[in-house]
Amino acid sequence: MAFDGLRVLSLESRRAAEIERLIRNQRGEPFVAPSMREVPLEHNPQAFAFAEKLFRGEFEMVVLLTGVGTRLLNRVLETRYPAGAFAEALRRCTVVARGPKPVAVLREWNVPVAITVPEPNTWREILAAVEGRPEKRVAVQEYGRASTELVEGLRGRGVEVEAVPVYQWDLPEDCGALREAVRRLAGGAFDVVMFTTSVQVTHLLRVAAEQEVEDAVRRALGSMVVASVGPTTSETLAEAGIRADLEPSHPKMGFLVNETATAASAILKSKR
């Protein structure tokens, strides 16, 4: 069963064209409003402090959480150190990659990956994947927000952890589409909303509050299908008082669209 004409809101940014195509392929009516951009930290002394320790061999394990963050960290370090120095240093460590995106970057750099974290790639799976490891000096590349649960979990095992912030998320430079999405959402113009990362939740509610329609948006979400790409995003929704109606069998965009299309009509019927 496809969307069959249901009105679908997506807040995807980097892969906006792709998700619009996927929704249309499932016979949905997409409205895609990019909701975020990744902004490298302009002044990042922590990244350079991490590099100095890494190059001196002070880290036994490096945990890389995102492919984008891995590339950005390398780009930052190349402003001060020789090209390839970061990859060379990683080859001397136990490297942990959270899912396929950092794995792809590391493969490109010929850096061996000791541990690939399985789906759904949350902090829980990372802790499980490194349980029992002998490494006690660990660096964690963060992505847009502090990895508090992961860091505290490692420290609870007696591990010395250093977090390395690489970039932060901000609203798009042009918020026109996002403001229009909020206006339509408050007016009940959508049947389905799909969240592909947790920051989309924060930014949607932020713009709704700025437009003084947050209450209307929350009411609308309560009568729609709310689809979440995975546990981390679902947790963020729950923290904001919004219940996710479904998560796909794999935390990937294609699975999210296809499985939401299959389930949407039945979920809507139960809500209305």
Q: Count of helical segments?
A: 12
As for the CATH topology of the largest domain, it is Rossmann fold
| Backbone CA Rg | 20 Å
Query: What is the C-level CATH assignment of the largest domain?
Result: Alpha Beta
Sum up the overall morphology in one term: elongated
Coarse structural class = alpha/beta
> What count of structural domains?
2
Measured between the Cα atoms of the first and last residue, the distance is: 19 Å
The tally of strands reads: 11
Biggest β-sheet: strands ordered side by side in the sheet: 6-5-4-7-8
Task: Put the structure in a nutshell.
The chain is of the alpha/beta class and 272 residues long. It has twelve helices and eleven strands.
What does this structure look like?
The protein is of the alpha/beta class. It has two domains: 7-36 and 173-271, Rossmann fold (3-Layer(aba) Sandwich), CATH 3.40.50.10090; 39-169, Rossmann fold, CATH 3.40.50. The chain has twelve helices and eleven strands.
Topology:
Elements: E1 7-10, H1 16-25, E2 29-32, E3 37-40, H2 45-55, E4 61-64, H3 67-77, H4 85-90, E5 94-97, H5 100-108, E6 115-116, H6 123-130, E7 137-141, H7 148-155, E8 160-164, E9 167-170, H8 176-186, E10 192-195, H9 199-210, H10 214-222, E11 225-228, H11 231-239, H12 253-271
Parallel strand pairs: 1-2, 1-10, 4-5, 4-7, 5-6, 7-8, 10-11
Antiparallel strand pairs: 3-9
Helix pairs in contact: 3-5, 6-7, 8-10
